[in-house]
Design a protein that fits this description.
The protein is an alpha/beta fold. Helix 2 packs parallel to helix 3 and helix 6 packs across helix 8. The strands form 3 sheets. The chain has a 5-stranded parallel β-sheet with strand order 2-1-3-4-5, with helices on both faces. The chain contains 8 helices and 11 strands.
């Protein structure tokens, strides 16, 4: 899933990009507030991590403008400011969670995964669809209990479709969520990726809706 990271501390940003990429996210990083606001307002993101103290435009102003313009992706505020009044102000401005610096990377990743799950209507960190089980904490997929080795891109595809089970996801949406903005890809990249995943899973999980996109049916609990 594609994530917007807005952080002007270069060293911290480098560490965050590495950790988030390792956790299966496609990361767009911006250090300038004005540029970050524009990207969040015009690009498609599963979530954003937003610092408050930024050049050009502060984080709360960015957040207020996003929400005023109807942007609904979850936002985790990340800041050195620890005063509870500022936390309340951030939540009231439309933030979904708040993590003060310094922080443990494991906690940030756990909070972020929870935000993404809730925004997709999923409560558990483990997603089950028939014989397929996806553990978002371990980034692991099994079929009938047998581990399936997926590339990071293949894992992101299965994760995104399973988190949006029951909804047809267009090829454009998958392209936006699975690939970095500057990644050069063929026009049939998603189709090829889906084909590889189907062969590896060996089960009829991902369905094609011609002219619309791809679907994983929502399976009711027994």
């Amino acid at each position: 899933m594609r994530l917007l990271l807005v952080e002007d501390d270069e060293r911290l940003a480098e560490g965050l990009v590495a950790a988030l990429t390792g956790a299966g996210f496609v990361v767009d990083h911006e250090a300038d507030g004005e540029v970050a606001w524009f990207k969040g307002d015009t690009e498609s993101y599963a979530a954003a991590i937003l610092d408050l103290g930024l050049p050009s435009m502060d984080g709360l102003s960015i957040l207020r403008k996003w929400r005023a313009n109807g942007q609904r992706f979850p936002v985790l505020i990340l800041t050195a400011r620890g005063d509870w009044h500022e936390r309340v102000e951030g939540i009231d401005a439309g933030a979904d969670d708040y993590l003060p610096k310094p922080f443990r990377m494991e906690e940030l990743l756990a909070r972020l995964r929870a935000l993404v799950r809730r925004s997709a209507g999923q409560a558990s960190a483990v997603l089950v669809n028939g014989p397929v089980v996806l553990d978002t904490r371990r980034m692991a997929v099994t079929v009938e209990g047998v581990p399936v080795r997926l590339s990071p891109q293949e894992y992101r595809l299965v994760s995104y479709l399973m988190q949006h089970a029951g909804r047809v996801v267009s090829q454009l949406e998958l392209t936006e969520q699975l690939y970095a903005q500057d990644f050069e890809r063929e026009s049939n990249a998603v189709e090829v990726l889906v084909g590889r995943v189907r062969r590896k899973l060996g089960v009829d999980l991902i369905q094609t809706r011609r002219g619309f996109g791809y679907l994983i049916e929502e399976v009711a609990d027994d």
